[in-house]
Design goal:
Layout lengths: L7 E6 L3 H10 L5 E7 L12 E3 L2 H5 L5 E4 L6 H10 L3 E4 L7 H13 L5 E3 L7 H12 L5 E9 L14 H4 L3 H17 L4 E7 L10 E8 L4 E8 L6 E8 L2 E6 L11 E7 L14 E6 L4 H15 L8 H17 L15
Parallel strand pairs: 1-2, 1-4, 2-3, 4-5, 5-6, 7-10
Antiparallel strand pairs: 7-11, 8-9, 9-10, 11-12, 12-13, 13-14
Helix pairs in contact: 3-4, 4-9, 7-9
Length: 351
Amino acid sequence: MNTLKPHLKVGIIGYGKVGKIRHECMKHNPCLELIGICDINPGAFQNSGVRYYSDYKELLDECPDLIFTCTYNCYIPGISIEAIKRGIHVFSEKPPGTTLEDVKNIYETAMEHPQVKVKFGFNHRYHQAIIEAKAIVDSGRFGRVMWMRGVYGKAGGAGYDSNWRNNRDLSGGGILIDQGIHMLDLFRYFSGEYDEVKSFVGRSYWQVDVEDNVFAILRNSKTDQTAMIHSSATQWRHKFLLEIYMERGYLEIDGILSSTRTYGRETLKIARCILDDNGYPLPNPQETMTYYDNDNSWSDEINDFIDCIVQDRPVHKGGVEDAVKTMELVQRIYNDDKYISKPACHEGIDI
């Protein structure tokens, strides 16, 4: 019996905060060997113990089996497409580019090279609260999903106005494409696609050339399912809340474990509707609460992708199809408000 584990050579392109997190996750997977890191700042990884490249094509010339693309959003399409054409598997951070066109170009290239696996970092699907909520929804025990409401907001933080994520040329947009895109991906994960969008997109506070608040309502006209999102960079207390209301009960995921631990403890609240003698729902049903203290989503996401490569199975979470459909929602939210740079109300940044 052959017990040898598969061996995959890996390169990381972009070695900032997320690149370092991906590197740390790789250390716990015996299938992976990091052969090189590419970054514009060589001082970022002096003690990494692997070879440094300043040009990502030189790293691709070393023929890695897999690359992790952890760069500015604007560079993701070019790097991903080049790697796919060379037959190199690609794991890229989200968002998968700055525009819908970027993502469609990646998709078309991936379709031309079906042997190459491509995945994007929608790691929220791998959080334990999300996994358990998804199992409950799919079981049908509470009936179909009627509506969802999501809040994902942060306080900005030190240097927020000068962060690259608020440079439209590098990022493609503001808080929606940076953070709200996770909530949109979860909406799709729990209830499918949406064909109607109404949105308000603007700047309320920060002196940046992208949005700092988005309010949007999404609707699937065929199933009459609705979802509401508020994505904010002026939520002065970091907040993640996803409410899923079904015909016979509801789920609430409050808090999400992150590297900063600033979104609170991750919890899943479950409640079943209680009916009176005439069959009408009573208010304040009994709720059960589960707490989660360990975040394995980053590692689990990578391990799932490696299994897709080794077992040659389709990428079923965060693949190119998911990337296109989620970016279509992002683009439609921007377009519905005919979003352009709008003046912020606040003239300073001291808070």
